[in-house]
């Protein structure tokens, strides 16, 4: 996990100072210090650590589940649900103000697993882009049969966006018109595909005036490929999976999954040309962080 010192070393990064402020019990807001513009909201307990991402227009672009979920479609863990219903174990604001603000938290799902994250946020005023760097780990607490999904996601309401896109293993960019899908609940797309090294998954072309688009880009992980998924029909979700959702496998007590990834959120776009320049710019801040960890 990252210490407060590392945040201090990033204080000279480009971008305005931010504040991570308590707006009430179980309510934290990320705001630009000068004009008080709100970028994101976190509710560690009742939202189980979900983060509301606001667009540059101030509308809700969608919700990031930044730490791991677990599920097993068709062979449910219990009660025919995924692991929504995690209980807050720990939440700590690491740095409440500065160019980079951050927190860490931990959540437990019954006696199945503990899901942890360290989360940092900064803002690029030139591109109106907020950058979230999440490091998440999941520790399996007991043997679990036939699990096929461990993932993070950016979720929206149905018909919020028109297009999802992903940079796949062969370097091609696949697109999906989500305005023409979703005839049934929980329709899944791109299962079995793998993201490219340096790949990403994105959603853009807002249909309800959110005024923002989002990309998820995996960095380091436990092992193996990252699988993209679009979950469409009653929701429009983009997801990063560390297991192949087509296959079920038994998990064992003591097993651990980990993933570092970036979430980029900025003005809505009509294509994906913005993603890789934005990732390259975010990498400058990340390089400073990496050097500070050594």
Largest sheet: 10 strands, antiparallel
What is the fold named in CATH at topology level? Beta-galactosidase, Chain A, domain 5
Give the strand content. over 45%
Query: What's the alpha carbon Rg, rounded to whole Å?
Result: 18 Å
Helix content: under 10%
DSSP strand count: 21
Q: Give the SSE order as H and E letters.
A: HEEEEEEEEEEEEEEEEEEEEEH
CATH architecture: Distorted Sandwich
Number of domains: 1
pLDDT average, as an integer? Answer: 90
Strand arrangement across the biggest beta sheet: 7-1-2-3-4-5-12-19-18-15
Tally of alpha and pi helices: 2
Low-confidence stretches: 1-12
- At the first level of CATH, the class is Mainly Beta
* Coarse shape: globular
End-to-end C-alpha gap: 12 Å
Structural class: mainly beta
Would you kindly provide a written description of the structure presented here, covering whatever features stand out?
The protein is mainly β. The chain has one domain (4-293): Distorted Sandwich (Beta-galactosidase, Chain A, domain 5). Helices cover 9% and strands 50% of the residues. The chain has helices at 4-9, 275-293, and strands at 18-24, 27-32, 38-42, 51-54, 60-71, 87-95, 97-98, 101-109, 113-124, 129-140, 144-147, 149-155, 161-167, 173-177, 187-189, 201-206, 212-221, 227-232, 236-241, 249-251, 256-267. The strands form three sheets. The chain has a ten-stranded antiparallel beta sheet, with no helix packed on it. Strands 6-8-9-10-21-17-16-13-14 form a nine-stranded antiparallel beta sheet. The longest helix has 19 residues, at 275-293. The radius of gyration is 18 Å and the shape is globular. It starts with a helix and ends with a helix. The relative contact order is 0.18.
